[in-house]
Amino acid sequence: MQPTSSSSSDAEGAYLCLQGLSKVYATDGGPVPALDQVSVRARRGEFLSVLGPSGCGKSTLLMITAGLVRPSSGAVTIGGELVTGPRTDIGIVFQNPVLLEWRTALGNVMLQAEAKKLERTAANGRARELLGAVGLRGFEDKYPHELSGGMRQRVSLCRALIHNPNQLLMDEPFGALDALTRDQLGLDLQQIWSERRMTVLFVTHSVPEAVFLSDRIMVMTPRPGRVDRMIDIELPRPRTLAMREMPEFARYIHEILDLFLARGILREH
Amino acid sequence: MAETEHPLAQSPPLGIAELEAKVEGGRAQRERQARLRNILYPFGVAVGLLVVWEVGTRVLGVPIFLLPPPSAIAVSFIRNLSLLLFHGWVTTAEILLGFALSIVVGIPLALAIFLWPAFSRSILPLLVSSQAMPKVAVAPLFLVWFGFGLLPKVLIAFLIAFFPVVINTAIGLASIEREKIYLARSMGFGATATFFKIRLPNALPAIFGGLKISITLAVVGAVVGEFVGGDAGLGYLLMVANGSMDTQLLFAGIVALTVLGVVLFLLIELAERLAIPRHIIAGDKGMREVV
Fold it and tell me: Quick check: B179 and A96 CB within 8 A?
């Protein structure tokens, strides 16, 4: 498989645009570079994954995209608009569900609606509909501690979607879940994405997860994170669990693993 | 081979619904027993101690002014009930006023400390070092300044009780996961909405922790104030009983103070339970297990 550049998406269809993002953190032990000149564009409705080892700055990249962390240099535009502060028109799913313990599942989803001052009854209906779509019908009035880890992350996903964002940012959303729940949530996410076609920036350190979900994968180098390789995933959609056994799927996995071996991220003894 | 079935295996297998009922019944029974034990054991120990005390003082012939038996204390308590109620009411008023003052001053102070770093930097070291000062030592000074009435007692109760309110509230407001703040900002909540919808509810358990410490300290403060100079209140009654060698009354006063302290503490706990329903406290634990 030849290394593919991002040129294929440099067309005017780009929705999310990261230009020359660098980030250096000031710490007691001196400046720590996290990102080095990362540029990437995502088409409207594209599912783009950011894949890399721990500490390669991929979460930082996502936080900068959300406008929650300032880059040391570089710029982000979403839908042609420069990100200068927290973007409120996007949806974010964090690594942890970040639910408010004193609100029910429905109440947590409605928090977003309250922030956006959406009309209450309509938002309520939408929230219930979303919760139903991710298999949480009947759990609307449960509190976070009454839900499993996977259920909490589903609530968090619904909260990120209730205002119909065009851009969804996900920071290792399934990282803390068991393998089965992870697979199921991956399938659910694919379903939701195929219905709504929002642009997704999906940060992960799981190679199969990235290949399974993505249109394109941006593989990053270890710290400081740079774009190592852009890989187009040309597997048919909708992707099924059985596709993971296909030789094409295995080839993508191999390509990435070889890259990680070459970079010393993985080491075979 | 003659296979003899285990006698237990001969009983017909139960369906899952029956098993559920059985397991649930067992759990409910164990829980009831545990609740009963939680009450019975400490109660039994208390009764045992009282019996040992009663018998001990009688058998050893301990003089009544040194250590009266529980029965004598009970008799004194009942005989002086109206006296105890009168003085108890005075002390209760002092405690509640001191506690209310602790809240009225403590929570805004904590807010200022949280919201205004410069204020925090300048006032917090003073506040902390002021706590090293023994407040009992200030009591005579308050007597000079404010006389023998209600005010000095309320102020001493306040002085002792307000610190935990300030510290716990400030810590509760400050300790929040960064992601919750990120979430609020990315959803578009302003500072005020973030405070009321996320930060304050998040801090409630810590705030109530401070209030519970504060109410017990307010009791101490009021009694100290009455010791130093007063003409009413349970602390004053203790001094009078002490002066007249009426040790039974002294003990009765201590019992009254203890009951008062426990009741006030339970009232704060009740308020906590109303403000933060049980599921949230449990939810806190549940969150920690998963993450």
Answer: yes
Residues of A in contact with B179 (CB under 8 A): 94-96, 98
Residue with tokens 């030592």: B137
* Cα(B285)–Cα(A255) distance, integer angstroms: 43
Q: What is the pLDDT of residue A157?
A: 94
Query: What is the three-class DSSP state of B1?
Result: coil
**Cα–chain-centroid distance for residue B100?**
15
Q: CATH number, domain at A29?
A: 3.40.50.300
A205 three-state secondary structure: coil
> Which of the four pLDDT bands, split at 50, 70 and 90, describes residue B284?
very low
Same domain, A142 and A212: no
- Out of A133, A164, A195, a domain closes at A164
The two three-digit tokens of residue B132, written as one number: 């090293």
Instruction: Give the domain range for residue B180.
Output: 70-290
| B198 secondary structure, DSSP code | I
User: Peptide bond preceding A224: is omega within 30 degrees of 0, i.e. cis?
Assistant: yes
**Structural domain for A108, as ranges:** 99-164
pLDDT in tens, B31-53: 999 999 989 999 999 999 999 99
Residue where a domain terminates, one of A164, A186, A221: A164
**Integer Cα distance of A98 and A192 in angstroms:** 21
Q: pTM for the full model?
A: 0.80
Tokens 């301990």 -> residue: B62
Cα–Cα dist A63/A86, whole Å: 9
Query: Out of B186, B188, B193, whose CB is closest to A66?
Result: B186
